[in-house]
Amino acid sequence: MENQLVWKEEYNIGVDVIDKEHQRLFKIINKLFAFGKEEKKSQWACQEGIKYFKDHAMKHFLEEENYMKSIGYEGYAAHRHLHEGFRKKMLPALEEELKQTNYSENSVDHFLGVCAGWLIGHTLTEDRAITGEGMSKWIDLLPEEELEAMKKVIVQLVYDMFHLESHVLSDGYSGEKFGRGLYCRLVYGMEQEEENREIFLAFEEKLLINTVGKAMGIETNKLDTMLVNATRFTARQFVKRVMEHLPDAEGCEIKEENLLTYEQFQDVFEKEKMQVSLLFDTGEGYFAYCVIAPHMLDKGAATPIGVENAMAEVEEYLKKRDIPQRQKILIVDDSMTIRQGMKQLLCEDYEIAMASSGMSAFRSIALDRPDLVLLDYEMPVCDGKQVLEMIRSEEEFADIPIIFLTGRTDPGTVRKLVSLKPDGYLAKYLKPAEIKQKIDAYFEKKI
Question: Relative to the CA of 84, which of 117, 144, 202, 323 has its CA 20 to 30 Å away?
Fold first, then answer.
């Protein structure tokens, strides 16, 4: 595998000290990619190379943070939080994997692939936002100390209410689907004030069955009216107890409550910025706790639930959930244009998830297994071949069908594609109707 990061003009943000350090980090990663393929490499040399990259990355973070402070960048706190997440969570986890595998080729590739992907994504979004060329997705996050305090409160409440040991999987949760779930919106505010606090809770269905269901003595293996209503009031109680620990939330009362489809829930993440967006693993299932600014939902996106319509709304919600589930397709492509185009083409008949890189694809598969993956063969950093191998290497995911998307169908490329034994390939230049027809035909054969 020939992995090389190619520096592009679009990576420059116009700040000499930052741009030069970005280029230096790219070169270090490229050297490590090349070294990782040498047959006579030593573990010690590999360790030293990775340590060299880590030291440079930390030095770069410090220089970048000093620059942001010097210009009074308003997104400094959120940006620094992302640096800290990479330094304190992601890097230690990757280094632990390297140690456990004695710096195997796969673990080194994984380390470099994650670091390269993070660096490119961070440069194109968060770093460009420093000079006003882009917009930070997480600029409205709570200050780090407040976010940490909220995590501790939620973890303690989960233990107090359900006797489950939970931990944070992500404090930058982007609305990824984690299996079949229930999505609630709760709006809190004060009588004399217009500003509201909107909280979104997403629960994996099995978590509700194993916690709220058991606590209520409800014997069911799926959501029913009683369990949904029990969850609604448990969610209110949970949110109220979290808010008791927030000084600015004193006196807040619930103003509105909604049950959302996943599409409505996902739409929020595409349009709005978060103050808090936490994903937890309880051991019994996932749940997310998210807080965003006022006016996050378009008027009329969901029907407010009140005493007079509660039963009807819950029953209607369950009817929608009981509609036979559509086949799930995960579209993996680094081009937003391709992802959105494929989604528009297929969303009427299929449930669509999207990922822009190999790492985000793997995460999406782990959270919500698809029935088919449409995988771009020519992605940068972690290409289609690597992503396919990564998926096939996991016993749990090895049987997921994968069809390559490719812009090239010359004989040499086709031979490479076929040798990887995917479930097929599609040329991107085909007419949309032809692509749709081929995907429909694929699923018809599976029935």
Answer: 202
